[in-house]
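Minutes, project check-in
Item: structure for the 100-residue chain
Input as provided by the requester:
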Amino acid sequence: MSQTELAQQIGVTFQQVQKYENGTNRISCSKLSEMAEALDCPITFFFFKKDALTEIIVTQNWDPVHIKDGLRLITAFGKIEKTNRKKVVDLAESMVLIES
């Protein structure tokens, strides 16, 4: 989507969108919400690094059959000592790489 198209959809000028993108002007929460809707993305898209966004997309696209196990995994992960969490993440990532 071009900046002009985005500007039209959220009711501002093309120049205003440029100012938002360059950080010259701040974006209100309501305008940010309108942008997310116009771009058909979650508002969290604007707050996370690329890797975190990938995690969100993967989580949102889980088949409902896997949600129960996912919730169990998240619950268990929350109970692991912080010093050991990286090991669990590394293990999970290594398992995904093997299956790919």
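Outcome recorded: The mean pLDDT is 79.
No further action items on this chain.
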